[in-house]
Amino acid sequence: MSLKVELSHRFGTFALDASFEAPQGVTVLFGRSGSGKTTIVNAVAGLLRPDTGRIAVGERVLFDSTRRVWLPTHRRRLGYIFQDARLFPHLTVRQNLAYGRWFAQKAGRSEDSARVIEMLGIGALLDRRPGALSGGERQRVAIGRALLAQPQLILADEPLAALDEERKSEILPYFERLRDETSVPILYVSHSPAEVARLATSVVALQDGRVARQGSATEVLGDPKVTPLGPGGAGAVLETTVATHHPDGLTELQAGGVQLLVPQVQRPPGAHVRVHVEAQDVMLAIRRPEGISALNVLPARILALRIGDGPGALVQLDVGGNLLLARVTRRSATVLGLRTGQEVFAVLKAVSVAKDGIAGRGILPR
């Protein structure tokens, strides 16, 4: 089952005109504030009636301006996860979950509560009230409540934005598991490249109310022409395999035959791992450097060079069949004589790869 969206809507001087398809898994609406992400989610939820367009989940039409179809929110069979958990403070966790299950019963369907509780690790919280939970625990309960409503689609509007980095690290693995173990499409709003890299089955990059590009996280984040957060937020995703773990706390990954050392990854050899690398952390050299502290010196070939209006430049690289971006100054690009097709070396410190930018299937906190 997939979600199909075609929308046109105007707010004063802002015009939204977006069309995309969200397949099973996590489709991330990615872009800076004001690009139209939340407007799209609210339209899908029935909280906003667009000027024109069509929204359908599978064969079920939620909105069609031509046919004058408009289902109210309570009939759309959606689960909505907000930035703040929005749990009922006077109810226990068990009762909050039962509220979500009530909607499933109304729809004539039921869900295995035990499976959801186990998946989210909230069994020990059932008799507590929201005020006695951490931010991460509350958000896990909110995910459970949305899932127990047996939705045909889950909407998540920047669900980690209100959490600190520690709580985000706690919650991300549960969204990964939700993606991998349920068949419900998830439309996820974010302006965090690390979240996109970890969670996205597909990415819809939005700029000024338009879809700049849609595709996999590797394709979208690795495209120097698509920078929804501006050049300073550019980065790419490498698809790698765990080769071995070293006793000094580093994990060796293989990316198309190229070795990459990163902080230890809790995955066995042979496991598939995605790695998010920020463009600003990649240096370029036209000859293999020696006597440096950076452990990753990767042979690469320049695929594209994008010179901006300011002092910076984005360089798209082929590293073992993976796309990598490097952000350098225009002066450096000129001095090095960088050009398309040139063989260079990408230099990356192992510690530059943040742990929240490394993800595999089903990684849960220890």
Kindly describe this structure:
This protein has 366 residues and is of the alpha+beta class. The protein folds into 2 domains: 3-225, Rossmann fold; 235-360, OB fold (Dihydrolipoamide Acetyltransferase, E2P) (Beta Barrel), CATH 2.40.50.100. Helices cover 22% and strands 36% of the residues. It has 8 helices and 21 strands. The strands form 4 sheets. Strands 7-8-9-3-10-11 form a 6-stranded mixed sheet, sandwiched between helices. The protein has a 5-stranded antiparallel sheet with strand order 2-1-4-5-6, covered by helices on one side. Helix 4 (135-148) runs parallel beside helix 5 (165-181). It is globular and about 65 Å long. The chain starts with a strand and ends in a 6-residue tail after the last strand. Mean pLDDT is 88; it is low at 107-111 and 362-366. It holds the Pfam family TOBE. Keywords: ATP-binding, Cell inner membrane, Cell membrane, Membrane, Molybdenum, Nucleotide-binding, Translocase, Transport. This is Molybdate transport system ATP-binding protein. Residues 3-233 form the ABC transporter domain. Residues 291-357 form the Mop domain.
